[in-house]
Amino acid sequence: MFNSKEQTSNKPQLFIETGTLRIAQNRSVEKALIRQPAFPFEVSVSDNKVILKNNTAKNDFSLMVYDLAGKCICKKEINHNLSDVEIEIPAVENGLYLLNFKNAEFNLTKKYIIRVF
Predict the structure, then answer these.
(1) DSSP characters over 34-68
(2) Rounded Cα distance, 69 and 78, in Å
(3) CA dihedral defined by 55, 39, 115, 83, rounded to 10 degrees?
(4) Fewest CB atoms within 10 A around its CB: which of 14, 48, 54, 85?
(5) pLDDT at position 76, please?
(6) DSSP per-residue letters across 64-105
(7) Between β-strands 72-78 and 49-53, what pairing exists: parallel, antiparallel or unpaired?
(8) Neighbour count for residue 88 (Cβ, 10 Å)
(9) What is the C-alpha separation between 58 and 101, in angstroms, rounded?
(10) Does the pLDDT of residue 23 top 60, yes or no?
């Protein structure tokens, strides 16, 4: 807790230290962060439905829908043999949601706006 500069005790202070800056020469971490796996399907959201097209996943995977507070509002298991899948998201309000697609080969998350009509 800090008081304002006008107070007699516990005034805020600014400390500046000098030193050397070291930059890591190993770019492998940087490349790993930039290179993200591509989605093995096309994702679109229409009304309160998630539509997956051209599914080329090699294994079954799960779809989890999270609100911005981190609460999982829907979880569905998806068969990798289905090329096109339509999943209805139950009882959501208009807003921004995180869709997470996960299995042994990928763990991908994207933000989508879901509108309920």
Answers:
(1) H--PPPSSEEEEETTEEEEES---SS-EEEEEE-T
(2) 24
(3) 0
(4) 14
(5) 93
(6) EEE-TTS-EEEEEEE-TT-SSEEEE--S--SEEEEEEEESSS
(7) unpaired
(8) 11
(9) 13
(10) no
